[in-house]
TrEMBL record:
Subcellular location: Membrane
A biological process from GO: metal ion transport
PANTHER family referenced in this protein's UniProt entry, alphabetically: CATION TRANSPORTER HKT1_4-RELATED, POTASSIUM TRANSPORT PROTEIN DDB_G0292412-RELATED
Keywords: Ion transport, Membrane, Transmembrane, Transmembrane helix, Transport
Keyword field contains Transport: yes
Similarity comment text for this entry: Belongs to the TrkH potassium transport family. HKT (TC 2.A.38.3) subfamily.
Entry protein name: Uncharacterized protein
Xref: InterPro entries: Cat_transpt, TrkH_K-transport
GO cellular component: plasma membrane
Protein topology in the membrane: Multi-pass membrane protein
Coiled-coil blocks: none
Record's keyword annotation contains Membrane: yes
UniProt GO molecular function: monoatomic cation transmembrane transporter activity
Amino acid sequence: MSTVEMEVFSNPQLIVLTILMFTGGEVFTSVVGLHLSKYQLKRRWTNGGLVSAAHAHHIEVMSTAETKQDSENLESGNETHTQRDASLDLKLLKSNSIRFLGFVVLGYLFLAHFLGISLVLFYLAIVSSASNVLKTKGLNKVTFSFFTIVSTFASCGFVPTNENMMVFSKNSGLLLILVPQVLLGNTLFPPCLRFSVWFLGKFFKKEESGYLLSESNKGEIGYLHLLPSLHSSLLVVTVFGFILIQFILFCSMEWNSDALSGLNSFQKIVGVLYQVVNTRHTGETIVDLSIVSPAILVLFIVMMYLPPYTSFLPVNDNPQTSGRPKKRRGKLLEDLIFSQLSYLIIFIILICITERKKMKEDPLNFNALNIVVEVISAYGNVGFTTGYSCKRQLQPDSNCKDKWYGFSGKWSDEGKIILIVVMFFGRLKKFNMDGGKAWILL
């Protein structure tokens, strides 16, 4: 969510923002978590597993010196030793599998960024219209390429230009380069990761790859993004299904609207595709959302609200729910926890209270729908905004100047603080996905 124009940042500041976006991205933080869990597992295995192995070896040596009368005890000792060896091998395989998965995710991360940055630089080198935009705005091509790819892959939605991607609406090649980055870093990360593990397992680390892809070990790794095979397949179908629905509705309602004016048919198709892909959850835009029809805005709100790994899963194959014991409902705290939607309604009401004066004086800009778009966009970590226009003021202010930043940039400090809370709440929503179950609606 931007409250200042992006072109006010200098080149060193953009580099700092690029580093922050890269290290704060979901994929990068998951890599850090994998390596931490690997070291914790290795420490526990070293403290417990190696001692057990040495003890088992000692039992084996002592057992070989036993007499024939103690043959039954010897067989029992060998059986115990075999079981301990198997347990030790399983722990070692688990540790190696987590290590392998960490390197796969790290390679996936850097390969996606390398290809994306290389393609953007190549496009800017051969297409003068895109490079001229950067030259006019005083932006460095390399900085722009790194910043945009990192922001797109990490689902931040920031672009170094004030107008976001609207200034590149006619550069269909650039938009097509960014579309895979949106999907690879967000909604399609689990199926692409599973495919990467399977593909690399064909050439090396077959045992570790088999362990990671095994349905029986799906709860052992504890990596949220490595979904089961069926769930990953249905996730792909769901993602492209949502894109198709949005694409058809957007084209049918906005094809001849002012939002897509000045574009030819091919540019409109690519632009609409880019726009609907960004609703989950990157938030880059080529159109002014304030002139888009309310029906499309409501559709975008629904898309922004849905978590990135939402899928139609008709069977109980969710590793987070299957085989998990039901929680006791006797605890007062659990009963008082609301659902995600309930908290969002509370946040919207609070912001309507803090901005009630502006909603009364400037209703065309400060209307309920624009506030809902801003709040759900913040919750979904998307970044879509309807912006603010001085032309929509009922009582024109001679000192008002249109700025290329988000609608929340015109909010009061109290409203901005609430929106910051909403962004943190949306980032951590996976820890409260079971809330609100004490409420029974009949």
